[in-house]
Design brief:
The structure holds 2 protein chains of 2 kinds.
Chain A: H1 5-16, H2 34-39, H3 53-56, H4 59-72, H5 84-103, H6 110-126, H7 129-139, H8 144-157, H9 164-170, H10 181-195, H11 201-217, H12 226-240, H13 254-265
Chain B: H1 2-9, H2 13-17, H3 25-30, H4 33-50, H5 56-76, E1 81-85, E2 90-94, H6 98-112, H7 114-121, E3 126-134, E4 145-151, E5 154-155, E6 158-161, E7 164-171, E8 177-187, E9 199-208, E10 213-214, E11 224-225, E12 229-231, H8 238-245
Classes of the chains: A mainly alpha, B alpha+beta.
């Protein structure tokens, strides 16, 4: 019997490790996320890798790693033009999030709705202003695919803890100097509308001030700004739905306010005024 | 006797001919100009009938040979001739004939205008290889699709290659212009991928021109197009965004959830 023992142990190890084709092994080490980092990194800057279905099948396992990779792009995605490598990585990464979200995007299927809610909750638990900042830069980038993917993700996960990030971007004078400034501004305004009915005191006031500031700059008769004008009205209407009995008069908890304060004060390029983003 | 010999020598040639058939015209015919003209024409007709069937280089040889022989027959075989009548020897200096000069000219032309000569005699159907690649949007993956490509309703050859396809667009030389290639890509219904279309249908114009052909990347019969077709399989995000629009955020303790009167506008710009 002794000669069978090593085989038995090996079989047990394989079974316990849950080795199944197409499912990533959940190793309890830092290298686990390296699979995802490698999956979004192209061999050449000209190509954009598509993260395989097998890596995304278990979104609970994939999400922490994908957010970790997203956060790691903080230094690469910013006011400077994206390098081809960073662009490729952003497309691949946001494409992976999009794939997960669209898997559950059937409002008529209760099971999928529950999965979607679980995904959003977990994302919000794991994200921070740095991760949302990368996506906000994506929502105002010159790539239509990155903008669409980023908005799809942000539209689902933006909340009171991170709305300060798109607010800071909307108060960045360089936004309208970029080639896709009008599109970027419209996308970021959409995010204000998502949070507006549930915005806490500081957020609510900053949304109102930022909206008014942009409205003052926009010519409502300009046919090229129809989307912006519609979003400004949308934000105003939804902000009006946030009543005193709701979150409107509730100050943000310090654990939310302080990261936002640090973000707007440290925003690069430096904001000329913090009047519309007071935390 | 002398009188008899004189009678025989004075006999007219017609009488001698009647004694048997004179075959002497045959060598005369084969050395005549008309023979070379006919031979040249026959070679040209053979070359013409072989266009598109035999290899272009063979057609070219036949045309050159036919033209040279035809010209030889028309009497251009000698451009000039000088005879010297020296005391000890007779030197004939023949200057190269017209056909020879023609051969020299053609040889030069073959080297200098090789591609143009090739295209002139090359009328068989060729296939421009057009590569179809997934658009680099981070989502499109064509490995899950079956592809059908056609021109004006007629299917054209295609093959899967790497992450995309290769389409073989038929054309003949001199047919510069564009061809409308329609494609239908059908996703595997057993394992559809989220966020990708189940069917992609579109028509693209493929430019058939020398500028669009990557000569350094293929042979003459299957040249590769410089332009690629990029396909996006991304489906609309509208469904996901409409689900997003109705989501609710947490409310503070003791507060009542708001009732938004309108949904947020979330279409990406």
């Amino acid at each position: 019997m002794t000669h069978r023992t090593p085989i038995f142990v090996a079989v047990c190890l394989v079974a316990v490790s849950g080795l199944r084709p197409g499912t990533p092994v959940r190793a309890q080490n830092a290298d686990y996320c390296a699979i995802y980092a490698a999956a979004v990194t192209a061999d050449s800057a000209a190509t954009v890798p598509v993260v395989s279905e097998s890596l995304l099948a278990d979104w609970n396992a994939a999400l922490p790693c994908l957010i970790k990779v997203l956060r790691s792009l903080k230094g690469e995605v910013g006011p400077q033009p994206m390098t081809p490598e960073t662009r490729s990585k952003m497309l691949s990464l946001t494409g992976a999030f999009r794939s997960i979200i669209l898997k559950f995007s059937d409002p008529n299927d209760p099971k999928k709705v529950a999965e979607m809610n679980a995904f959003i909750k977990k994302f919000r638990d794991l994200d921070d202003v740095d991760a949302i900042s990368v996506l906000s830069w994506g929502a105002r980038s010159d790539s239509p695919d990155i903008r669409a993917n980023s908005l799809l993700i942000l539209g689902n996960v933006i909340d009171n803890t991170t709305i300060c990030v798109p607010l800071a971007h909307l108060n960045d004078p360089n936004l309208m100097k970029s080639p896709s400034g009008v599109n970027g501004r419209a996308n970021l305004l959409s995010l204000l509308a998502v949070v507006a009915p549930w915005a806490y005191k500081e957020n609510s006031e900053n949304i109102a001030r930022t909206r008014a500031s942009i409205a003052a700059q926009v010519d409502s008769n300009d046919p090229n700004l129809k989307g912006t004008v519609a979003r400004l009205e949308n934000v105003a209407t939804r902000l009006g739905n946030n009543t005193e009995t709701s979150n409107r008069s509730v100050p943000m908890p310090e654990t939310w306010r302080l990261p936002c304060k640090a973000y707007v004060e440290g925003f690069v390029p430096k904001l000329p005024s913090l009047e519309n983003v007071q935390y | 006797m002398a009188a008899e010999l004189k009678r025989l020598s004075d006999q007219p040639p017609a009488a001698a001919a009647r004694s048997g058939f004179d075959w002497s015209f045959i060598p005369q015919f084969f050395s005549s100009g008309i023979f070379f003209i006919l031979l040249g024409m026959v070679l040209l007709i053979i070359a013409r009938n072989g266009l598109g069937i035999v290899h272009t280089s063979f057609s070219f040889v036949l045309v050159v040979l036919g033209t040279a022989i035809l010209l030889f027959g028309t009497g251009t075989q000698g451009m000039g001739k000088l005879e010297s009548d020296a005391a000890t020897a007779k030197y004939n200096i023949a200057i190269a004939g017209g056909a020879g000069v023609l051969a020299l000219v053609i040889a030069f032309g073959m080297m200098k205008y090789a591609p143009q000569i090739h295209s002139t005699f090359d009328i068989e159907t060729k296939y421009l290889v057009v590569r179809v690649q997934p658009k680099g949007d981070g989502s499109t993956d064509l490995s899950n699709y079956w592809g059908r490509f056609e021109i004006d309703g007629i299917a054209i050859p295609s093959a899967r290659r790497g992450k995309g396809f290769e389409v073989f667009v038929p054309y003949s030389n001199g047919q510069d212009g564009s061809k409308p290639v329609s494609y239908s890509l059908l996703a595997d219904p057993v394992a559809p991928k989220a966020g990708l279309k189940s069917l992609i249908e579109e028509t693209v114009n493929i430019e058939i021109s020398e500028q669009n052909i990557d000569r350094g990347n293929a042979g003459f019969s299957f040249p590769v197009s410089r332009n690629l077709i990029y396909i996006s399989a991304k489906s609309s995000d509208a469904k996901a965004l409409s689900a997003t629009a109705v989501q609710e955020l947490p409310v503070a303790e003791g507060r009542t959830p708001p009732t938004p009167s309108v949904a947020p506008i979330l279409e990406a710009q």
